[in-house]
Design a protein that fits this description.
- The protein has three helices and six strands, in the order ααββββββα.
- With 180 residues, the chain is an alpha+beta fold.
- It has a five-stranded mixed barrel with strand order 1-2-3-5-4.
- A hairpin with a 5-residue loop joins strand 4 and strand 5.
- 19% of the residues are buried.
Length: 180
């Protein structure tokens, strides 16, 4: 009986040792994390390259991953879907257990997003988002509005207009005096 018990304990110890010591490959908590770029693009509802312009933490328990964070992206290139120049994307914080995804302001990402059922977009660590650059200047949302012209340009245009008006006045005055 004692011999049988000793044999059973030895087998269990060897099984435990091989389980712990056996080499394993990379483990993903989300089974979809191993998709290639073509699969990610085809399965996404929307895809884009954009810069994170702002983030809005949830009001309750920030950082715990319980409520989604809202990230505002300025879209530089739409890869799939009908997207405006600014997109708000929701994702839980990545706390290791919920497959959430964290972005930071001034980062450029290639994002694969999915409809959230309420008309918005969401993403996760399973989506295969790719960080392209950090410390990126945040572009203007409409891409084409340069804002008000610089003061130097306005002064130069005003001075040119004034010189033109004075020249025109002097030329017409001179023409009248030679005609009389």
């Amino acid at each position: 009986m004692m011999n049988r018990m000793l044999r059973l304990i030895s087998v269990a110890a060897l099984a435990a040792l091989f389980t712990v010591a056996a080499p394993i490959g990379r483990v993903y908590a989300c089974s979809c994390a191993m998709m290639g770029p073509a699969e990610r693009l085809s399965s996404a509802d929307a895809a884009f390259v954009g810069v994170v312009a702002a983030l809005e933490e949830p009001p309750s328990q920030p950082g715990l991953g319980l409520d989604p964070v809202r990230y505002t992206f300025v879209i530089e290139e739409a890869l799939k879907g009908s997207l405006t120049t600014r997109v708000v994307l929701a994702s839980n914080h990545d706390n290791g257990a919920n497959c959430g995804f964290d972005f930071a302001v001034a980062q450029r990402w290639r994002v694969y997003a999915y409809g959230d059922g309420a008309g918005g977009l969401t993403t996760s660590s399973c989506s295969g988002n790719e960080l392209l650059a950090e410390g990126v200047p945040i572009p203007k949302a409409d891409g084409g509005d340069p804002g008000p012209p610089p003061a130097g340009l306005l002064i130069a245009l005003g001075a040119t207009g004034l010189v033109g008006a004075v020249s025109l006045w002097a030329f017409t005055r001179r023409s009248r005096s030679t005609a009389v």
